[in-house]
Specification:
Layout: H1 14-25, E1 31-33, E2 37-38, E3 46-51, E4 54-59, E5 79-82, E6 87-94, E7 100-107, E8 118-121, E9 136-140, E10 143-152, E11 155-164, E12 167-176, E13 183-187, E14 192-197, E15 206-211, E16 220-223, E17 232-239, E18 242-250, E19 257-266
Antiparallel strand pairs: 1-19, 2-19, 3-4, 5-6, 6-7, 7-8, 9-10, 10-11, 11-12, 13-14, 14-15, 15-16, 17-18, 18-19
Length: 269
């Protein structure tokens, strides 16, 4: 049986965040970017890492041996990340009306068995079933940080939630928009970066939101891709103030897909 529904108090900060970001931008840009460069991505599960001005993908060997035995689990949205002691997972779990619940669970035996799922967000009101972007997941020690796109009662958008020990912090909005989009997430002790496909307008671009308060508020938003890029499928990593955002773009000559990465230095917060 699934856990009883949790109705999180969602922090509506869109206008405030944009205002703070605009004021900060008058001082200096949030990120001092280098030019994008092509980046090889190995086959199979990978994760982006950055050191100084250099970023690369490394093979992520963490694979779950089995899926949690939960009716309604959307296999295509199941993602994992290793903590210090446990393997953690997040996924969308579809309801009878084709809306979904975002669930997380932990495994102490590398995914052979799973503990009782915890409901992160139960407020999805869509009817898309499993046809939705998977959540993005990262761990700090054994705390879980998750970014995801869904249709909430107050609107469609990108959201963030995290756990600390046994405490689930209420989800907050990262950005509202017109469509469901792919996300990526990176985190350390205090800073969180959520990269996402821009959910508004017709231009395909990748933006990144930055928090210096463990995701309790995302103070800054900035565009990572360039105006000439058709950017999708984001990945993100940071190390200290070095921030890397990667995306897939297409060559104008033959329309073939190319993955690139852009590295910059976080100027604020």
């Amino acid at each position: 049986m699934l856990p009883s529904p949790v109705k999180p108090f969602r922090v509506l900060l869109g206008a405030l965040v944009l205002a703070v970001g605009s004021l900060a931008a008058c001082d200096k840009p949030p990120v001092a970017w280098n030019d994008p460069v092509p980046l090889d991505q190995p086959q199979g599960p990978t994760k982006l890492v950055v050191s100084g001005a250099t970023a690369r993908f490394v093979v992520d060997s963490v694979r779950s041996a089995s899926l949690p035995a939960v009716p309604g689990l959307c296999n295509s949205t199941f993602v994992t990340a290793s903590g210090i002691k446990d393997l953690h997972a997040a996924w969308w779990n579809v309801r009878a009306d084709s809306s979904s619940v975002l669930l997380i669970a932990a495994s102490s035996d590398s995914g052979r068995t799973w503990g009782k799922p915890t409901a992160v967000d139960t407020t999805d009101i869509s009817s898309t079933g499993c046809k939705r972007p998977p959540p993005s997941l990262v761990t700090v020690a054994d705390d879980v940080y998750v970014a995801y796109s869904m249709i909430a009662p107050e609107g469609k958008g990108v959201f963030f939630a995290h756990t600390m020990g046994n405490m689930l912090h209420s989800p907050v909005s990262v950005i509202y928009g017109e469509r469901l989009v792919a996300t990526a997430i990176a985190a350390d002790a205090m800073r969180v970066a959520v990269a996402y496909e821009e959910p508004n307008g017709t231009r395909q671009q990748v933006d990144v939101a930055l928090s210096g308060t463990q995701g309790h508020i995302f103070e800054l938003h900035t565009t990572a891709s360039r105006s000439v890029d058709i950017a999708t499928q984001p990945a993100v990593a940071f190390n200290g103030r070095s921030l890397a955002v990667s995306w897939v773009t297409r060559r104008a000559s033959d329309s073939s897909a190319v993955r690139v990465v852009r590295v910059g230095q976080i100027q604020q917060p």
